[in-house]
Amino acid sequence: MKFVRALKTVVPAAALCFVAAAITVYPERYVEKCLQGFALWAECVLPSLFPFMVITLIFIKTGAAERAALPLKRVCGILRLPPAAAVCTVISVLSGYPAGSRAVREFYDGGCFTAADCRKTAYLCSTSGPLFIIASLGFKMFDDKTAGVKLLCFHLISVAAVGIIVALASGKSAGGKVMRRAPNGDLLYDAFLSAVNAVALAGAFIAFFCVAGQIAVDFNLTLPVEKLISLFAGEDCAEAVAAGLFEMTSGCRALSAVGGKFALPLCGFLVTFGGVSILSQQLCYLIKCKVSCIKFIGVKFLQALLCFFIALIFQ
After folding, report:
1. Number of other CB atoms surrounding residue 194 within 10 Å
2. What is the DSSP letter of 37?
3. Which of 115, 194, 233, 241 has its CA 20 to 30 A from that of 286?
4. Burial readout 144-154 (b: 16 or more C-beta within 10 A, e: otherwise)
5. Please, are residues 173 and 76 in contact by the beta-carbon 8 Å criterion?
6. Which residues of 62-94 are buried (b: 16+ CB within 10 A; e: fewer)?
7. In sequence order, what DSSP letters do the residues of 220-245 get, joined into one string?
8. pLDDT digits (tens, 9 = 90+) for 9-67
9. Would you kindly state where each structural domain of the chain is located, as residue ranges?
């Protein structure tokens, strides 16, 4: 146990020191990459995330989300989920990462979810938003709105299929308490402040992992992944996916520039898996709800694989 605890401390510390050293030695490359990450956030993520994040927080804090869940209580019961899980899922689908995980945390803090409910609901509430996939990815990156619509369908089907299987395989929900939060004069201020913090945090994650991903590619730390993907998709796609495993948005942009029949399915994999950046953003909220990091990442990987194969067959 002592060795495991030491490993958990030493490995992240060594990785951070390595990243810091690389930035210090090659600032002309990695400082520029950091700026590119912030530009990518401002162009593709900020417009699609911020408005929906404000709406989501107001929806939850006023209690409207809890009331809206009541008609779906029976469906959630069949899936062994708490009633509010339906609202969290809708919020996730409309807003995208990490709004669904934030919603799960809000309902957990409000007493609507038990830790077991969070562990089941988290997998269904982990989706990208339509504005990002259709507008940013489909229209801007692939120059094809239809491709974005298809990818959104593949993505949602994959997340729902695996998430429902996990929920059905789990025990019955013990949640269902009503979140009693009366609106007050600070409601709008709190909602906007929380949304600004969440969106700014997303930008910081994107910029940091853009740099970390580029360092990993430059120093051949992702070589096994690249070799595997290059067997069927080519070296350019392989390098794009390797970078996307750290920061999904930059990987998708690189794949759209490469093109080919594997570009869209691999984008589907990256969007559904999320990469280290998006996984970290979600786990910031979910760890406090006692969601296992390893299980969450494992389920996300299964969802991503399913999305890849669906997109490959039906694109």
Report:
1. 18
2. H
3. 241
4. eeebbebbbeb
5. yes
6. bbebbeebeebeeebeebbbbbbbbbbbbbbbb
7. TTTHHHHHHHHHHH-HHHHHHHHHHT
8. 787 788 889 899 999 999 989 999 999 989 988 887 888 778 877 887 787 777 776 67
9. 44-173+183-314
